[in-house]
Amino acid sequence: MPDTIDVPGYLARLGLPELAGHEPSVPALRALHRAHAERVPYECLEIHLGRPTTVCPAESVRRIVAGRGGYCFHLNGAFSALLRALGYRVTRHVAGVQGRADPAPAINGNHLVLTVSGLPSAESPEGDWLVDLGMGDGLHGPLPLVEGHHTDGPFRYGLRASVVERGGWRFDHDPRCGFRGMDFRAGPARMSDFREKHEELITSPESGFVRVAMAARRDATGVDVVRGLTLSRIGTVSSKTVLGDEVTYFTALADIFGIVLPPADRAVLWPRVFEAHRGWEQQES
To answer: pLDDT value at position 4?
Structure first.
């Protein structure tokens, strides 16, 4: 059954109300993807605010329309529902992200990725596109699902056949970014396929989302990432700074990532972020 979502509200959040009823096209897909990457943050703050989430796309859409974001299961789940409502041919896929410390790739279900088909162009003669708003420091726009190297702003990516699973794909990330790559299965997935891994990621002490409050936002020239109190910019110009106090931290969340929290949420989040960052500093010293 299709997800019932607030399409006008979602498009308004993206600043693209004129795309309601627009015929699916590569330019429109690119505009939707880029606007989503720029306006809807990749973030895990609900975990640190003690508010459990699900992988339900309709729930994720409501949170996005209300001004927040989420991580891969939320963002790609919601975006796939929007694209389907707009008439795009979208497939959800089980994937696995290979972190910098992971010795080998694996399709372990810790990531949801999308493909869109039926939109042939000079870049993608078969009409297939990789669509992924859930990698944090990943794509700004959709990539042609074609083997080879692809440039997206200041970053260079690779697409090739996966060595993990026959028929699957491998995305090789830019070496400046936060993980090595991502593999995904060719076959379609259901949102229920991600429930167990989602529960692990939002509750396990070993989960990076549980250990550190973070947010990321991609644009045409790079990506902003805040992990704990460390704010980084990676791209055409790169920088790193520590947000030294509560006011500076919440100002950065609002001005850079578009996350405006009410006083009650700030009162809960700040001591948790501060203590986690201090613990990390002690480990590094």
So the answer is: 87
CA gap 86, 79 in Å, rounded: 11
Per-residue tokens: 247: 């006011």
pLDDT in tens, 31-74: 999 999 999 999 999 999 999 999 999 999 999 999 999 999 99
Close Cβ partners of 9 (under 8 Å, ≥ 6 residues apart): 65
284 CB-near residues (< 8 Å, 6+ apart): none
**Six-digit token string for 106:** 């694996």
Whole-angstrom CA distances from 208 to 19, 44, 228, 242 are 36, 10, 11, 19
Q: Are the C-beta atoms of 177 and 69 separated by less than 8 Å?
A: no
The Cα 184–Cα 191 span in angstroms is: 15
Q: Domains in the chain, please, with CATH?
A: 7-196 (3.30.2140.20), 207-284 (3.30.2140.10)
High-pLDDT (> 70) share of the chain, %:
97
Tokens representing residue 16 in the block: 């693209």
User: Kindly report the CA angle at 183 between 215 and 46, in degrees rounded to 5?
Assistant: 25
